[in-house]
Amino acid sequence: MLLELIVILLLGAVIAWISDSIDNRLPKWIAVISLLSSLYPLHPIIMAGSSSDGQAWLVSESYPWIERFNISLYLALDGLSLLLVLLSLLMGLVAVLCAWKEISFRSGFFYFNLLCSLAGTIGVFCALDLFLFFVFWEIMLVPMYLLIAIWGYENRRYAAIKFFLFTQAGGLLMLLSICALVLLHYQNSGELTFNYDQLLQHQLSESSAFWVMLGFFIAFIIKLPIVPFHNWLPDAHTQAPTAVSVILAAILLKTGGYGLLRFVLPLFPSASAEIAPYVMALAAFSIIYGGLMAFSQQDLKRLVAYSSISHMGFVLFGCYAMTQIATHGAIMQMLAHGVSSAALFALVGAIQYRYHTRDLNQLGGLWLRLPKLSALLLFFVVASLGLPGLGNFIGEFLVLIGSFSAMPKLTIIAVCGLILAAIYGLKIAQKALFGPVKLAPCADVDRREMAMFVGLALLLLWMGLHPQPLLDLAQQSVNLITVGVEL
Amino acid sequence: MINPQSVVLFSLALFCIGIYGVLVRRNLLFILISIEIMLNAVAVLFIAAGSYHDHVDGQLMYLFILTLAASEVAVGLGLIIQMYRRSLSLDVDQLSHLHD
Amino acid sequence: MQDHYLANLLMLVVLLPLFSACLLMLSALFSVKLSKTSVTLLAVGCMALAAILVLLVGIEYSDYAGQSFSYRYANWIEIGQLRLSFGFYLDPLSLVMIAIVTGVGFLIHLFSIGFMQQDADFQRFFIYLNLFISAMLTLVLADNLLLLFLGWEGVGLCSYLLIGFWHQQPANILAANKAFIMTRIGDAALAIALLLLFLLLGSLNIQEIQLKAVQLWPLDDNASQYRLDWVSICALLLLAGAIGKSGQFPLHTWLPDAMAGPTPVSALIHAATMVTAGVYLIARFYQLFNLSPLAMLAVASIGAITLILAATAALVQSDLKRILAYSTISQIGYMFLALGAGAYSAAVFHLMTHAFFKALLFLSAGALVYSLGHQQNIFRMGGLAKKTPFICACFLAGCAALSALPFMSGYFSKDFILESLLQQQMYGFWAIAIIGAFITAFYSFRLFFLIFCGDCQLNPDKKLPTSMIIPLALLLLLSVFGGIMPAVLNVLFEGGPALLASVTNDSLALHLLTIATPISAVLLCWLIFRKHSFSERFNSSLTPRFKYLLFMGWGIDRLQEKIFTQPFIRLCQANKNDFIDRLSQLLSHISQYGHRQLQRLQNGKLRWYAASLILSAIVALLSIVLLR
At what angle do helices C409-423 and C466-481 cross, to 10 degrees? Predict the structure, then answer.
């Protein structure tokens, strides 16, 4: 079922590319169709839902691939990855809708790359063979590089290369760690395997565990991104076309958090527990630093990008608090940030599409020109600054309340991040929406955009007011993650 | 039987002349000739070594070098003619377009 | 089932304004044009219905005889120990609060119809207003801290939106930002309190927290009283949250600026309801606060400082609404003082009467501003008593109640506070309160005389519509007679948590002093202003510099800007380009430098290549030979 899911997307990608030569309006429809039809293989899993208690995986399947090295196509889903796969498909749809009018140049190749990248991401969320995971990790990156480098804005080459170098450096470290892990396992047990379940049973010696973990850890925090490795993100976001920003913020960053939860914490519980205080300090610093940087930006997209850094700090914070509540919080934060940041980038893209500027000093008084778009922007800004009743608050609150017992002082610093969130959030509203009118009249949101944004807003409200189904779905995974590390 | 030591010295002298020619001459044609001299120096050494050790390999290598030198001269001269047609000069110091 | 009936009533009270807000919002979003009449009907109608339902709640609740009523509607979050639900908790305190919110809220809605009639954003105004009412009701009814926090942030957001309602003027937006961020600082403290309480007590249900706190940290008479123990830390953090929301020192500077919003908003949010949320919070956690003498002292001290600070600042302001804003801050200081003395019922009582007379004052100020064509400077006014007799009467009643002249509503509540201060033997605070009362009476009548006596300078050009007169008249009655209600309050509080300190009469002399203070202040004010034929000239007796200091609210605003805002902005500006990015760019610069250096070797000179080839061959050979 899972293989079908990925194959449908890849197939859709190829068809979209080919169809471009027939009519350049075809690719986007093919993208929508393939995204919707990829939900079909998932529906029995969603229907069964959280009822299958006790088992680690909701669904799993394995096909032989490179038998010489005992590498297989081992794909499986649990609550955590199911949530993220659904988020990916949904945000993929949002991205296609964002690109609807914006992309006309070589649209076939654009949707090819978009769908490939999505397929790679979904593969990352499903793969439980470490080699396969790495392959998907790369499949996700290369199309993304092309998307930024070809369809980006003025400084796109620089941003694309920066993005690629950072993530590739992380990927290399991860590859080294995967090899080291597998070889160490081979030395101990005499069996060469890349299988996650088997590697999970294996206990590494303390010193080697630390170094192997570090490789994974750095790869994932580059992706997340956390502060010393964050600077690819603002450039990539600023230069990427809207749809790609949406994918980048909503899904790609989540692969970092997913990697931490799926691999680093369960595979190296004691090494993770050892570095947890430092990691949490780093996360708290990231929250504050991201917030400060967001406030000092003039470019609207850059501002939102830095706010993402600040929000993803909460994810790392929650992961390393190593309590059930905080882990739930990290997952909720990933989902909610996925939705809210996607909406924010889509809105900024909509503004840029209309006025060809993202500069906060040139915007202003948007409320009088585009009242509906402004109201929506205000809603998502308010969501991202953590208003209770919306999804982001639940994530942040759970992270904070779960971490407080572990690290009270750092948690208090993280709470200050909420004040910063208010400051930079209001800056967007103040500079872009309010004040005297500086811009010419323009068409307000059309039906396509309205449907998209209202849908996302309702999703956030649902996450904020009734998060229990999501929490229940993730419960099993959280148990697995925290069982090893909880004291 | 010639003293092998003198053969080695002769070949060394020949080789050094070749090197000197390569380094000092600026005309491509002369550089090519100098390279030929260096090849011949090595070839002489092979023949001498072959006869000293009573082995046929030395002469075999000489034949090999001979073919190589011939083909090299053919290709090299062809290139030089092309180059002269293009830039009307055979001065290597002026022919440095490849450096950037 | 009686329980369900009451529960459904409560839910409807909260959901009705939310429903109308959502409906109006959706109609705006999907371009369904609504006429002003239908917007009015929907928004004000829902509000009226909510107010009537609260009346029904009150009747229904009287069966409980002060017992608390709580009901859980649905689960919110449930992970392990963390169990949160959407649940309401009704006791006399929350009943009084929802009565004030819906009652005063309804009157202000009614008033807004006329006030906002000409505004293009009529619909947006009512969306925000209804949203606010709903959030405020959630705040006061919540049975757990997180739901309370939801309401708490919700009212903050609505306050932000309404202060910046006229968003074309950048100044309004700055004021709105200031309000939101300042209160957000308090909210962060409240959030930390929430985390700490959950960590220490394992629950977020307000009643459970207090029960466990009483068991866990019994008040120890022998130990030194003002210890900084866990309960004090929790209480102080809650206090910090309350300070932010209620505009108390040192986080009060946003409130005078918040007057940038439309006047009904100032009446509803920044006088009657939202700013009293801090008082409500402390009253709600009275058991916790009772356990910590230190926190109680802090509450009282902050109240006292704020009370004097704001009252003196109000003495010299020239903007009508700013005076009222400072007076609100100062009156909430009174409430904090009462809370600090443990006189929770006195605080809530004062909260109620203050809601009446301050709403009256703001609304009549609004009416005045409306009829004068948006003139807010009191020095431009004067002699309006004859031109606008009705507004004058309203103002007079409001000022009298604010000054606590005998037998007005404010008199009873302030008297309550003063007496309970005496009872607790907090004589210092009592003296401050008396001085404050004197200043309060002085500035309120300065305001009154400057506007309504003396020479006439402005002519009112608009007649008030009925929808503005009715709420004014009702509030006037409430301000005058609202103080007779303690009897009613007493019934409500009976049997419930012993909020009401039984008031015993102290010596008659002290009692007379509390009556005499405001009267003497009014007389003094009259004498001074009559001599100068009701102009501001008397103030020149103050040194200009001191007057300026007072005018700037003791310069606290300026100080905060110097100490926090400017360094923050400078820090952000300094690191605008992200020094970490610079560091990683350094890496690329280094490799580019290396690239350029190595590039030099490839100079295209064939003989140079040959020479280096030969040279390195010789070096290699030599090193092999020599090193062997």
Answer: 40
Residue A156 located in a structural domain: no
Q: Per the domain annotation, does B100 fall within a domain?
A: no
How much of chain B is in helix, strand and coil states, percent to nearest 5? 80, 0, 15
Contact call for C607 and B23, based on CB within 8 A: yes
Record the pTM. Answer: 0.88
The proportion of chain C whose per-residue pLDDT surpasses 70, expressed as a percent, equals 93
Q: How far apart are CA C424 and CA C501, in angstroms?
A: 10
Please name the residues between 222 and 251 in chain A that touch chain C, using a CB distance below 8 Å. 227-228, 230-231, 234
**Boundaries of every domain in chain C:** 74-90+170-536, 542-573, 577-627
pLDDT attached to residue C272: 84
Q: Please answer yes or no on whether A412 and C192 come within 8 Å at the CB atom.
A: yes
User: What would the mean pLDDT of A103-109 be, rounded to a whole number?
Assistant: 85
Q: List all chains that touch chain B, counting a touch as 3 or more CB pairs closer than 8 Å.
A: C
Q: Chain C contact for B23, CB < 8 A?
A: yes
Q: Is residue B99 part of a domain?
A: no
Residue B47 within any structural domain of the chain: yes
CB pairs under 8 A between A and C: 123
In a domain, A49, yes or no: no
Assess B97–C contact: CB distance below 8 Å, yes or no: yes
Partner C contacted by B54 (CB < 8 A) = no
pLDDT at position A52, please? 53
Residue type, C559: L
Contacts of A7 (CB under 8 A, 6+ apart): none
> Is residue A144 predicted with pLDDT exceeding 90?
yes
In this structure, what CATH number is given to the domain that contains residue B16? Answer: 1.10.287.3510
ipTM of the complex: 0.91
CA distance C488 to C349: 11
Tally the domains of chain A: 1
Mark yes or no for CB contact C79/A422 under 8 Å.
no
**Residue A398, in any domain of the structure:** yes
Say if residue C496's pLDDT is above 60.
Answer: no
CB-based contact A76:A2 (threshold 8 Å): yes
Phi, psi of A481 (to 5 degrees): -70, -45
Domain that holds residue B10: 4-90
Domain that holds residue A358: 278-487
Count Cβ–Cβ pairs < 8 Å, chain B vs chain C.
Answer: 29
Span C397-435, pLDDT tens digits:
899 888 888 878 888 888 888 888 887 778 888 888 889
List chain B residues with CB under 8 Å of C607.
22-24, 26, 31, 92-93
